[in-house]
Amino acid sequence: MEIIKEGLLFTKLDGGGWKKLWFQLRTDRLYYFTDPEHTKNHLGVLELNGASITPTSEVQTYRKHCFEICVDDERHLLSCLTDEDRVEWSETLNQVLQQLNMKETAQQQEAVTSPEGESLVASPSMSRPEATKNMLRGFKRGVLFVPPPPPLPAWEPYESLSIDSTSGEPVYGTVDRLIERLYGSDHQVHKYTTYFLLTYRSFTNGIHYNKIANNDKGRTYKLKICSYMKKWASELRIDFEDNQQLFSIYKSFIDHAEDVDTGGAMPWRNNLTVPQTVYGRGSIESGTPVGNVDFDTLDTMELAKQFTMRETSIFRQIPPWDFHECGWLHGNSPTFSSLLDDSKAITNWVIRDVCDSVADKRLARFRRWIKICDECFRLSNFHCTFAIMKGLQSKEVAQYKLADNWMGADVFFQAFEELKSLTNSRGNFKCYRDNYTKANVQCVPWLELEAKALSELEVDNPTKLSGGLINFTKCVAVAKIIETIKSKQQLKYSLSYNPVMDAFIDAHLKWCELILQRERKILNFLLLFPDRHHLCSRDEYREGMGIKQELSMIHKVSGFQNECRVSIIWM
């Protein structure tokens, strides 16, 4: 069978992913294979008789260079590597379909011609009743008349707002149309407002709402705006605390709407005040003395409580916009980034505390951190639980084989095995997610898993599409993750604050952060000078000697040396 065209295409799977396959177009069928080297046994075939080719846009598929083949009410979405390939495949398939249609029409005309030579096919000049009579005459003779397929749909411009017929939520739309839906006549879905408020900063800003205050469309319209403003102020008041200009616009609108009979919708207008809140890491009171605190004598339960108090104070201050567009990777999420930095510092503290201990105390320190980690787990502080377990399972600690030094009946061993099961990545951290779902009380989640899910949403899934459209389907997916986090932020721990112990923890974490910064400088320098002897300029020599002095001041960790063994010679 003659091969008309062949090439590499991506087909969309039922689960939503894309698979790379090798396609061959042969006469009236489209075959597909795993790759071009295995074309003897095909994976499947598409019958092109009666099919149609429909162009698709990036807005509809969230992927470039796509076209759709419709066969017997089944849709097959295919994607090409380049737009030139898409045009070539579409033209070739349309030519094949046109030839098949012409051939089928000729066969129909021959089949439905009566013995007397009278044609039963409706001619262009034939009236509709006459065409119907001829078709009925053909049915009586046992001949089924099949009219030719309709012409290909014309390419239409993008709609300014597209609504999903099943969920009622917008699929995509312009910024203005998405805003109008908040308080316009077509606002029907209550959840839409929440999704919009949690994600709008990824594609616009709050000042854009200034036109709401300047609109004058009567009492009914203003009531809808008031209802929306009330929801905004009650559910996301940190927007106004973070933006004084937005708060001024809000107050101006309230004053402007006072002359309208709102039927009891306005009493809340004076309830919103802007407290002087600084978003970022919570800090201990200045001048709190640490004193000669012995880590071995501190109560492990009290330490776990203070760890939890510290991480909760940061977690509850993370605003929704810190989760937009992977901002923590680009320095745009200061509060969320501070929580992640704390996690790294805790892990580093555990590694150094265990590795720097003398041999006869190393096992005792290892067990002590297991107990602290277990107490954090009992408090549903999953953030510290994962941070401590990362340190206990690190390669620096694992080299001492401390877990092999006790019997299986040991209570610490059993707790360690339980914590290993909790932090295991099997099934996309199924054990952790089950415990997190069951934690209906106060908890500090392990946000690195949410960060991973949000990062995956950013891959080949832009927020802003061509034509000034916003991919609101993605915004809904992001908002659902943020909404789950936000529900946990509302819950508070009833724990007492211990300033001395909190100062002790804060001092150790800051020390670990300082050590990490110095080690990064040392590693960068050693990457520039991998050998022992180098010729360098006077400035490079001075910088290298400064780094050598810093290195001699920090403690030994597995993989690092107490002194820099690079000889530097300037010329």
TrEMBL record:
Superkingdom: Eukaryota
Record region (Disordered): 106-129
A Pfam family assignment: PH
Keyword Flavoprotein (UniProt): no
Segments forming domain N-terminal Ras-GEF: 166-277
Protein name per Swiss-Prot or TrEMBL: Guanine nucleotide exchange factor
Any GO MF annotation of the entry: guanyl-nucleotide exchange factor activity
